[in-house]
Amino acid sequence: MVGLLVIMGPDESGQRQQTYPVLGHVTARWNTTHPDLIRRAIENMRRDSVMVESYDQGEHSPLYVVVDQGVSGVAHLVRLNELLGDDLPHGAIIGIPREHQILAVPIRKARDLATIEPVLRLVQSVGSKASDRLSLDTYWFHQGRLHPLRAEMKNGQLEQIFPPDEFHRLIEQLPRD
User: Fold this and answer.
1) What is the DSSP track for 85-149?
2) pTM of the model
Protein backbone atom coordinates (compact mmCIF):
# COMPACT_ATOMS: atom_id res chain seq x y z
CA MET A 1 0.00 0.00 0.00
CA VAL A 2 1.27 3.45 -0.87
CA GLY A 3 -1.46 5.66 0.51
CA LEU A 4 -5.12 6.22 1.19
CA LEU A 5 -7.66 7.81 -1.08
CA VAL A 6 -10.22 9.72 0.99
CA ILE A 7 -13.50 10.70 -0.64
CA MET A 8 -15.78 13.10 1.11
CA GLY A 9 -19.31 13.99 0.06
CA PRO A 10 -22.84 14.36 1.34
CA ASP A 11 -25.04 11.55 2.60
CA GLU A 12 -28.27 11.61 4.62
CA SER A 13 -26.51 13.26 7.55
CA GLY A 14 -24.83 15.81 5.30
CA GLN A 15 -21.39 14.24 5.41
CA ARG A 16 -19.77 11.09 4.14
CA GLN A 17 -16.20 9.96 4.24
CA GLN A 18 -14.90 6.83 2.54
CA THR A 19 -11.29 5.68 2.65
CA TYR A 20 -9.72 3.32 0.14
CA PRO A 21 -6.18 1.89 0.12
CA VAL A 22 -4.04 2.79 -2.88
CA LEU A 23 -1.95 -0.22 -3.83
CA GLY A 24 1.51 0.27 -5.32
CA HIS A 25 0.75 -1.34 -8.66
CA VAL A 26 -2.15 1.08 -9.27
CA THR A 27 0.08 4.14 -9.38
CA ALA A 28 1.34 3.26 -12.86
CA ARG A 29 -2.25 3.06 -14.12
CA TRP A 30 -2.80 6.56 -12.80
CA ASN A 31 0.30 7.74 -14.67
CA THR A 32 2.08 8.67 -11.43
CA THR A 33 4.80 7.33 -9.12
CA HIS A 34 4.94 6.45 -5.42
CA PRO A 35 6.96 9.60 -4.50
CA ASP A 36 4.56 11.78 -6.50
CA LEU A 37 1.57 10.27 -4.72
CA ILE A 38 3.20 10.89 -1.33
CA ARG A 39 4.03 14.47 -2.35
CA ARG A 40 0.42 15.06 -3.36
CA ALA A 41 -0.85 13.58 -0.10
CA ILE A 42 1.41 15.88 1.91
CA GLU A 43 0.22 18.87 -0.11
CA ASN A 44 -3.38 17.86 0.60
CA MET A 45 -2.61 17.50 4.31
CA ARG A 46 -1.28 21.05 4.38
CA ARG A 47 -4.87 22.15 3.76
CA ASP A 48 -6.04 20.46 6.97
CA SER A 49 -6.60 22.57 10.04
CA VAL A 50 -3.78 21.51 12.38
CA MET A 51 -3.13 22.98 15.80
CA VAL A 52 0.32 22.63 17.36
CA GLU A 53 0.78 23.59 21.00
CA SER A 54 4.09 23.54 22.84
CA TYR A 55 4.47 22.86 26.57
CA ASP A 56 7.70 23.70 28.38
CA GLN A 57 9.21 20.79 30.34
CA GLY A 58 12.05 22.56 32.09
CA GLU A 59 15.35 20.85 31.34
CA HIS A 60 13.79 18.57 28.72
CA SER A 61 12.70 19.38 25.18
CA PRO A 62 9.14 20.71 25.01
CA LEU A 63 6.11 18.47 24.68
CA TYR A 64 4.20 19.21 21.49
CA VAL A 65 0.54 18.35 21.09
CA VAL A 66 -0.51 18.15 17.45
CA VAL A 67 -4.26 18.03 16.84
CA ASP A 68 -5.69 17.59 13.36
CA GLN A 69 -9.19 18.85 12.65
CA GLY A 70 -9.24 17.43 9.10
CA VAL A 71 -9.41 13.93 7.66
CA SER A 72 -5.70 13.10 7.80
CA GLY A 73 -5.36 12.40 11.51
CA VAL A 74 -2.07 10.88 12.60
CA ALA A 75 -0.97 10.71 8.96
CA HIS A 76 0.51 14.10 9.80
CA LEU A 77 3.42 12.14 11.25
CA VAL A 78 4.90 12.14 7.74
CA ARG A 79 5.31 15.89 8.05
CA LEU A 80 6.07 16.13 11.77
CA ASN A 81 9.39 17.88 11.13
CA GLU A 82 7.54 20.61 9.27
CA LEU A 83 4.83 20.98 11.94
CA LEU A 84 7.35 21.24 14.77
CA GLY A 85 9.77 23.41 12.80
CA ASP A 86 12.62 21.04 13.68
CA ASP A 87 14.76 18.61 11.67
CA LEU A 88 14.57 15.93 14.40
CA PRO A 89 17.93 14.31 13.57
CA HIS A 90 17.58 12.00 16.58
CA GLY A 91 13.84 11.61 16.19
CA ALA A 92 11.17 12.12 18.82
CA ILE A 93 9.34 10.26 21.57
CA ILE A 94 5.79 9.93 20.23
CA GLY A 95 2.39 9.08 21.61
CA ILE A 96 -0.70 8.63 19.45
CA PRO A 97 -3.53 8.11 21.93
CA ARG A 98 -6.29 9.28 19.55
CA GLU A 99 -6.95 9.27 15.81
CA HIS A 100 -6.33 12.98 15.46
CA GLN A 101 -3.76 13.62 18.20
CA ILE A 102 0.02 13.26 18.27
CA LEU A 103 2.14 13.88 21.36
CA ALA A 104 5.80 14.51 20.55
CA VAL A 105 8.99 15.29 22.45
CA PRO A 106 11.97 15.92 20.16
CA ILE A 107 15.10 14.02 21.21
CA ARG A 108 17.94 16.53 21.34
CA LYS A 109 19.94 15.33 24.34
CA ALA A 110 20.19 12.18 26.43
CA ARG A 111 18.06 13.71 29.18
CA ASP A 112 15.08 13.87 26.77
CA LEU A 113 14.80 10.08 27.05
CA ALA A 114 13.53 10.63 30.61
CA THR A 115 10.31 11.91 29.02
CA ILE A 116 9.30 8.41 27.89
CA GLU A 117 7.54 7.69 31.19
CA PRO A 118 5.56 10.98 31.43
CA VAL A 119 4.56 10.70 27.77
CA LEU A 120 3.46 7.10 28.33
CA ARG A 121 1.36 8.15 31.33
CA LEU A 122 -0.25 10.95 29.34
CA VAL A 123 -0.94 8.62 26.40
CA GLN A 124 -2.54 6.04 28.68
CA SER A 125 -4.60 8.67 30.51
CA VAL A 126 -5.92 10.27 27.31
CA GLY A 127 -6.21 7.09 25.25
CA SER A 128 -7.96 4.99 27.87
CA LYS A 129 -10.87 7.49 27.93
CA ALA A 130 -11.05 8.13 24.17
CA SER A 131 -13.67 6.61 21.90
CA ASP A 132 -11.26 7.06 18.98
CA ARG A 133 -8.32 5.42 20.80
CA LEU A 134 -5.38 4.54 18.61
CA SER A 135 -2.59 3.32 20.90
CA LEU A 136 -1.65 3.21 24.56
CA ASP A 137 2.08 2.77 23.87
CA THR A 138 4.91 5.17 23.11
CA TYR A 139 7.02 5.18 19.97
CA TRP A 140 10.32 6.42 18.66
CA PHE A 141 9.77 8.36 15.45
CA HIS A 142 12.97 8.48 13.45
CA GLN A 143 13.68 9.19 9.76
CA GLY A 144 10.03 8.84 8.82
CA ARG A 145 9.49 5.53 10.62
CA LEU A 146 7.52 4.81 13.77
CA HIS A 147 9.20 2.25 16.06
CA PRO A 148 7.18 0.88 19.01
CA LEU A 149 8.97 1.11 22.35
CA ARG A 150 6.65 -1.55 23.81
CA ALA A 151 6.79 0.11 27.22
CA GLU A 152 5.78 -1.91 30.26
CA MET A 153 4.42 -0.27 33.39
CA LYS A 154 4.34 -1.87 36.83
CA ASN A 155 2.68 -0.22 39.82
CA GLY A 156 2.35 3.02 37.86
CA GLN A 157 6.07 3.17 37.02
CA LEU A 158 7.86 2.52 33.75
CA GLU A 159 9.53 -0.83 34.23
CA GLN A 160 11.17 -1.41 30.85
CA ILE A 161 11.02 -0.70 27.15
CA PHE A 162 11.85 -2.94 24.22
CA PRO A 163 13.11 -0.56 21.52
CA PRO A 164 14.82 -1.59 18.30
CA ASP A 165 18.62 -1.99 18.28
CA GLU A 166 18.90 1.27 16.35
CA PHE A 167 17.47 3.10 19.39
CA HIS A 168 20.26 1.74 21.61
CA ARG A 169 22.85 3.02 19.12
CA LEU A 170 21.14 6.42 19.17
CA ILE A 171 21.45 6.60 22.97
CA GLU A 172 25.22 6.21 22.72
CA GLN A 173 25.45 9.11 20.22
CA LEU A 174 23.28 11.64 22.03
CA PRO A 175 24.89 14.71 23.61
CA ARG A 176 24.81 14.45 27.40
CA ASP A 177 24.17 18.16 28.07
Assistant:
1) T---TT-EEEEEEETTEEEEEE--SGGGGGGHHHHHHHHHHHHHH-TTB--SSEEEEETTEEEE-
2) 0.80
